[in-house]
Amino acid sequence: MDSLSKKIQNLGIHDIRNAARFAQNMIVQYEPYQIDIRRATNTDSWGPTPKHLAKVLRNRYQVPLYLMTEYTLKRLVDHVATRPKNLYEKARKDYVNYGSEWRVVLKCLVVLEFLLLNVADGDELNQVRSCLVTHKHLLSREVMGYRVGMSNDGKMEVHERGIRKKCEQVLQLIEDSQYLKRERQRNARNNLKMRQQGESSLYNANALDSSESSATDTFDDDEGDEELPEGVPQQQQQRRRSHIEEQRRQRREILRERIKNTELERKKQQERSKEQEEQEPDLLDMIDFNAGNNDSGDDDFGDFQGGDPTGAGLSLGDTIDLIDWITAPSDPSTPKSSTDGPADKKESSKKDKDAFADLFSFSKSLI
Description:
It contains 15 helices and no strands. Helices cover about 65% and strands about 0% of the residues. The longest helix is centred in the C-terminal third of the chain and has 46 residues, at about 235-280. Among the domains are: about 30-195, Serine Threonine Protein Phosphatase 5, Tetratricopeptide repeat, CATH 1.25.40.90; about 235-275. This is ENTH domain-containing protein.
């Protein structure tokens, strides 16, 4: 209850008017295109906004454009007339729209001008223009002679001049085909420029979101529609939005793929480095520090220089020296002992014979 009471206290005149308009639309059961036209030509102090005008134009795919033009003219005439037809219109003029009638008249002229400048060439333009030419007297007589009886800001003459200027613009568009063509071309250039600026700002915002790994777009609209530039057809705007969204999706996919490939390449590089480190031999491990330490004390010539198997204990060098000494001739300068007798000579020859026998046996054993 507290929350409800606070909401009721915060309600303003605009909220009350919106509620009354919604109830009126439900009771009378207006068509969707009529509701959009009524919303674009209400008594609010702002508008019609580009969003309201775009919503009016998108109804051309459901209803003919001449019906939309006729309903706008009907609403214009109802608010220009000074004599109400019934009690309902009198109450609306004197109480509901008192002091704001001129806003509805001016906004209806803005909607008519918008239709002339933004519908497609050919049949659509012919429908709008032929309908306005048929009811041209309403613009030239009723609207041009309209007088603002009451304005909330007290600037009745200023509003009257604004209404007459806008009405003259509409009359010139429907009377002069060359002027209409020039104005449509100028309006198309302005719409293209606005669209390019919007796409550029949207692309920059999307690039910033991609760098922060977030690409979320929100459109501020009470009914979920984007506020479109003035005069741009709804179907063209939808195609443009779908194209931009597809480009965003492709850029996000490319960015994800790049990040994934970079991560995979980094992991492969780490694995290759690890395998190279495992396969590379350690030079310190190849060195045999025990190669120079022979515990047995033997070298390559140990077996060859060992003692003889007979137990003589002589090396090959000693044996050769011994043979040379034995076979060497006796020195004649050596004096003979005078005391050596025949017995001594026999003893000596016997010893020499035994020495040669021992040497022969020793040499044989070596062989």
